[in-house]
Amino acid sequence: MAQESQTGDVGRGSGESGIRGPGGGTRSRRRLSSGDTAEQVRAVKAALIDILGPHERLVTYLQAVVLWEKPVHSVLLYTLTNCGFW
Where in this protein does the record put region Disordered (predicted)? Predict the structure, then answer.
């Protein structure tokens, strides 16, 4: 015999599914269609461009240092970071 949750038929046929959370309760999650997903990706991309746009040079420089494209700068950053933790 199948057990029925306390909330009844959570989202049957409505695109939602009941999911057990870490606290034992249930929460519902809406399944996104590909159109909704593409729209969310565009919104996140626009938000990131707005936030990081003015700092593009700094972000590009830090990326080059982290990826060891500028070895001298990378060694200095590595050394300073380790000294900071000691």
Answer: 1-37
DSSP 36: H
pLDDT at 44: 95
Using CA atoms, how far apart are residues 42 and 21, in angstroms rounded to an integer? 29
Q: What sections of the chain are H helices per DSSP?
A: 34-52, 56-66, 71-85
DSSP-derived secondary structure letter, 55 = G
Q: What is the pLDDT of residues 11-65, one digit of tens each?
A: 445 454 555 555 555 555 666 677 788 899 999 999 999 998 989 999 999 999 9
Report the phi/psi class of residue 8: left, alpha or beta, with left for phi > 0 and alpha for psi in -120 to 50: left
Contact 20, 26 (CB under 8 A): yes
Q: How far apart are CA 39 and CA 47, in angstroms?
A: 12
Distances (CA, A) of 8 to 3, 15, 26, 27: 10, 16, 11, 13
